[in-house]
Amino acid sequence: MSEETQTSLCDQWLANLAASGYRVTAPRRAIVELMASSTHALEPLAIYDQGRKDYPGLGLVTVYRTLEKLEELGLVQRVHHHQGCHMYLRAAHGHEHLVLCTRCGHAEYFSGDDIGGLINKVTQSTGFEIREHWLQLFGLCPACKNQ
Amino acid sequence: MSEETQTSLCDQWLANLAASGYRVTAPRRAIVELMASSTHALEPLAIYDQGRKDYPGLGLVTVYRTLEKLEELGLVQRVHHHQGCHMYLRAAHGHEHLVLCTRCGHAEYFSGDDIGGLINKVTQSTGFEIREHWLQLFGLCPACKNQ
DNA sequence: CTATCTGCAAACCGTTTGCAGCGTT
DNA sequence: AACGCTGCAAACGGTTTGCAGATAG
To answer: pTM surpassing 0.85?
Structure first.
């Protein structure tokens, strides 16, 4: 992801906040800047720590409240993990799923899952009416693989 | 699942506890009986409430400590959900995945996922070395569908 | 008889809420 | 100027820990 797309994603999120009647403030700018460019799912506390580098007055409570709004606007989503299920990441664009690095936590989306056949099979065998699915892959990212 | 298999699964778990050097006690028996036969993922508090019907002296702390041991022995596993990620369910037998009913919480395992092709594709496109995957389907179980 | 297990109470820790002052619009 | 937003401190609720007595083996 280039520097420009990061910046514009960030501006896009801020515009989105404003358009929804929320105010654009310094602490929110710091959090948005962080979340729009992060390639790792982050816990609230990590966002707080990182965000304070940018805006030292930032409070943890504001992190929680801002994440709540960003999630509501569909800009950010929660990521569930073995080692924690309160991490946040830039939301998927359309129908995408996650690959996560178990070593460094690097997260990447991919699209093109082909589980339609599987869903049909499960529908047949269990009688469930499937409406949603969750798919996550875990492994080593290119950087961590070479070590 | 017939009554006999439930009973034997329960005995199997108790035997497993004993074989691992853990003691078989009344509170543990109550929890094992519950977990070995439940078709829903349950939170510690729900296990506590249910378990007290069987063994009124049961303490919540014992529920936590017993779940820890059952998980360690691979008899029980944590289930992550949108509405909570601290629920426990009988562990999968081999490579199975979950279908969950979003209305009543009924959980069922299925096998035969065919995502090998997908994993290859993602390996190619992202450079990740995929080692594990998480797949969960959500929908309505047969009973809830007809309402 | 010994070591594990139990339940209680207290500690813990991440998250949420109440509030008075600040800053965006 | 109005009202949303902020950070602080306190409350909250689920989980963990310390401990003395109970109990399985």
So the answer is: yes
